Amino acid sequence: MSSTATLGSNNRTIIAAAVVLAALAFSFLPPRLIVYDNLYGFFMWMETTWFGVIGQTWGAVFAIVEAFHLLAMALLGGAVFVSDFRLLGLVFNDIPAQDVLDKAHSVFKWALAVVLFTGIFMACGVAGKIYFLAVFWYKMLALVTGILFVFFVKRPLLKKDLNDINPWVIKLVAVSSIMVWVTVAAAGRWIGFSG
Amino acid sequence: MSEEGGSNKKLDDLEKAALVSSVTIVVFFVVYWAIQIESTYSLLAFAYDW
Q1: Is B1 inside a domain boundary?
Q2: How far apart are CA A100 and CA A116, in angstroms?
Q3: What does the pLDDT read at residue B3?
Q4: Burial zone of A70 (CB within 10 Å; 0-12 exposed, 13-18 middle, 19+ buried)
Q5: Residues of A at the B interface (Cβ-Cβ below 8 Å)?
Q6: What mean pLDDT value characterizes chain A?
Q7: Is residue B3 part of a domain?
Q8: Whole-structure pTM value
């Protein structure tokens, strides 16, 4: 068997490792600062958009959108906890895991769509503030990691028959999923208390 | 979900990708929160002269 064939059979692993290494390198090397500086203009522009003007001018609109953002986060968190605790064997053990995972994932997708839309609206309203908050960037890192992890690793993996997957891998996936989404939620609240 | 399931089987590509990304996520966020908790404790210790 040639080395190319071996590489080909580990395609997804190689891509995952490359993305992880690229993300870590970007996070800790100087090019990050150049990108950060260049994004300042974009954040200033965000405040001038309709979303930005509405968010800054009418506090009530911002508050209502934030209410939907928090409700969608609660829904998203519920979907994450239900599916991951089922994977850990802590809840709904009398219901087939695949049923729980499929239903939780459809709730997760809708909740994520609402979170992203309301989040963009809110970010436009306070762009000048969040640009300078380190916790905002950690939240974005966690959010992007969570989305990539769910759609390119977790979901494809769990579409397989769970009996064919190493149980330790399933548990590790569940724990890391909980960690990344709890970080997204906690960092979001932290933004609210900052500045 | 069977506990014995695929535990003795060789990991396939998807499982290895899941393992690599999960371990990275767990390590990164454990370190991140450990640093945050430590810095919060240091601030409180400084503020209240612990």
Answers
A1: no
A2: 24
A3: 44
A4: middle
A5: 9-13, 15-17, 20, 24, 87, 89, 97, 138, 142, 145, 149, 153-154, 156-157, 160, 162-170, 172-173, 175-176, 179-180, 183
A6: 91
A7: no
A8: 0.86
